[in-house]
């Protein structure tokens, strides 16, 4: 090699007994380990200089387990194996750069990361903790999960963001910062304690057996299913812009659930709402279709208002064209069981056959403003 009129020779030593010469070389290691790589450059006067770098070599496989232990691991001498784990999660993430396939990062009980960091978890990675409790596996920094990532038994103390399709969360906890979901693919959340969810999913979002503690929004989701969840007091759900369908089934809520429809169908069933201002708020969106809302086999009790309908032409609480079987219990709400604020097109129908209403009407019901129609009904339908 000639540089500025001087002849240079190079010697690469890779730490495994192999050497090479040349300006740019390619070397393949036969085993994973930590190696010192040394480059020595000599000119035609015999003057030399060298550069050394420590490199970690991991196997290139389709599947790998990496172990991390915040109490007994070692980021300097560890190799991420079960017997010799890393100490912190950022070290494990750096090791994932050498992995070509699916990987599971096993996190022993302890705290990982720091508040100032943002960890981007590579695609097809699973974060597997011990238990999702405050005394077990916690991540103290912001986390962004990539495509096909999973997390289980982890408490996320800072912002958690899902930005890749195919993510699955199970048995996780989030802090007051909550969970942000913004992706163009399917996402699933199961058996988790989530402070709040703010989701925009151009695919299917399935949330089941979770506990929500603060106001949550689901906006412009392609398909949304909420099943067997618990919505705590002073929490509310706001659902807007679902393109295809929304299914809410077997949920238990102490806060308002608001449906702002713009999808092809809305189904609300087998759920209980109590202790809310308005248990169920139904309002048509700008893209409201003719299908309307199908609501059956629910219980709305001990709220201020049982059901509030605003700007919607068709609601089927039972016996209507959408196929609702009725069997809703809508009673013991302190102001009114049913409040209608007006249809979208100037006329509308609430079908309400085969439901349980107050009979006789309980004492303490309040008169509403003249612009509001209120009903405690037993008949088949209400025209408005």
- Low-pLDDT runs of 5+ residues are 286-290, 360-384
Tell me the structural class.
mainly beta
How many individual domains?
3
Helix content: under 10%
Quickly count the helices.
1
Calculate the mean pLDDT score and round it: 82
Instruction: Quote the beta fraction.
Output: over 45%
Radius of gyration: 30 Å
Report the principal-axis shape. Answer: elongated
Write a brief caption for the model.
The chain is built from one helix and 40 strands. By secondary structure, the protein is an all-beta fold.
Structure description:
The protein has 384 residues and is mainly beta. The protein folds into 3 domains: 2-56, Immunoglobulins (Immunoglobulin-like), CATH 2.60.40.10; 59-193; 196-384, no CATH class. It contains 1 helix and 40 strands. Helix 1 links the parallel strand 6 (63-68) and strand 7. 35% of the residues are buried.
